[in-house]
Amino acid sequence: MIVDSHNHMTKYSPDATQTREEMLQAAMEVGLHGIVTTDHYDIDSTTPYGEEWVFDPEEYCEINYPHRRLPSQRQKGDPPGFLCGIEIGYIPKYSDRLRNLIADYPWDIVIMSLHLVHDLDPFHNPEKIYKPSLEDTYREIILVIAESAEMMPSANIIGHYDYFSRYVPGDKSKMLYRHAPREFDHLFRIMIENNQALEINTGTIEKLHLNRGYSLEEAMPDPEILARYQELGGDLISISSDSHHTNQVARLVPETCVWLQKHGITEHVWFEEQKLVKESFEVDDALQIDWDKRA
Ligand SMILES: [Zn+2]
Ligand SMILES: [Zn+2]
């Protein structure tokens, strides 16, 4: 019963290879309840070929909206639902433009993400972004994410708070509550005020598991982060694979749901025309997971 709320398609996201048809086919094969395309809108970011990471929203809506199917109205035997959203990269100097972009089109879901700090991306500029201590790095990053949540109150989901942990040079880069407790509290208070969901991004989980020396269980989010979010009153969790290729659709989603349930979370959310939908998810008891598995 999961709606995978964050995915990318070729043609709109320069780093994705799946077409809409392929993505929908994959969603059906893995048994998702619904899938959302949320393509990159990162002003000023360019690919190695000099192409800006933005798309024409007008054309995007025209082509994709006829294929929408609301997950909330899905009947037995129907294919998975399909919704259209956008993943907006936060850049402070373009806040007004980004707010207009949210307001001017009928997005189902707007994800606000941080891909750059000081106009630099962590993948190509690790030495300029990462400080000697994870605490100093993550405090700065969570503060900017909090600013993005505050400046863009109409965004529905705060995407991958832990994105920067994917590219830290060296092992054991997982983001923990204790790295930035005050900053996390600040972020969560803003999100709760704005009804913005906290995204659990299985793309980060997979990267930590495959590249950063964590077992599958260790690669899951820090339980203290979720506990504190709930303690402050947060109850909107979205689950997403951030897939760019068909083999990534719903990656580690069953495992993540089992793990979330172990930590007392049994509901997830998505948005339809930016209206909140909350559903409990069922975990398949037969699912055997090797939590100690290492890459
Ligand atoms: Zn992203
Ligand atoms: Zn993404």
Overall description:
The structure is a single chain. The protein is of the alpha/beta class. The protein has a single domain (3-280), classed as TIM Barrel (Alpha-Beta Barrel). The protein is 33% helix and 18% strand. The protein has ten helices and ten strands. Strands 1, 2, 3, 4, 5, 6, 7 and 8 form an eight-stranded mixed sheet that branches. It has a two-stranded antiparallel sheet with strand order 9-10. Helix 5 (134-151) runs parallel beside helix 6. The longest helix is centred in the middle third of the chain and has 18 residues, at 134-151. It starts with a strand and ends in a 15-residue tail after the last strand. 46% of the residues are buried. Bound molecules: zinc ion (2 copies). One zinc ion (ZN) binds at residues 87, 113, 115, 159-160.
